[in-house]
Design goal:
It is built from eight helices and no strands.
């Protein structure tokens, strides 16, 4: 529990402190404020109740669904309401903060586990967590590499079209994969 907060504080500071690089790549000054606020959402998320993992472990999918639903619907409703009112991208940023904050509150409301800050097992946890952290950092870099390479070329409209196309394609890939002979009819007990 303590380790999650410490790592989140480090990540939030790293993200907030590295705003000059994205500003120089994208050439937009307002991206700095958005990045700093999004770093805050990382910090807020670190205070979510770790007890909600027990919902999946104990196969309490109804309670797990409740947690995710309340967190996402709060962020969604706030984002839509503010977008209609402000007509600004700030609605998404504020909605993200609200969604994370609601996740913290709902996590403690749905599960009675109350984490205690302790340094007793930090060495054991960090010996595993450091490699997960490195892997996740590398995966993020690979996934976002195209944005970093194309972001400074002023091809926002074309790049936006590419992002939307890739997102939609990834949503339908499992369906296409299933219909091309990889669905339940082709599964066998040996596979």
């Amino acid at each position: 529990d303590y380790l999650v907060v410490v790592v989140s504080i480090c990540c939030a500071n790293l993200v907030a402190g590295s705003t000059t690089w994205p500003r120089s790549i994208f050439g937009i000054l307002r991206v700095v404020d958005v990045i700093k606020v999004m770093a805050l959402t990382t910090l807020i998320g670190s205070f979510e109740n770790i007890g909600i993992v027990a919902f999946q472990k104990n196969m309490e999918f109804g309670r797990d669904f409740q947690f995710l639903f309340y967190r996402r619907i709060a962020g969604f409703l706030v984002t839509i309401a503010l977008a209609l009112w402000l007509h600004s991208y700030c609605a998404m940023v504020i909605g993200s903060i609200v969604g994370r904050s609601v996740g913290v509150v709902v996590g403690y409301w749905l599960h009675n586990y109350r984490p205690q800050f302790s340094m007793a097992r930090v060495r054991i946890l960090w010996s595993f967590s450091q490699w997960v952290f490195v892997r996740n950092f590398g995966n993020y870099g690979v996934i976002e590499l195209d944005k970093l390479l194309l972001g400074h070329r002023n091809v926002y409209s074309n790049y936006g079209l590419i992002c939307i196309s890739l997102h939609q394609a990834s949503r339908f890939f499992p369906v296409v994969y299933w219909f091309h002979g990889h669905g339940p009819s082709s599964w066998s007990p040996s596979s």
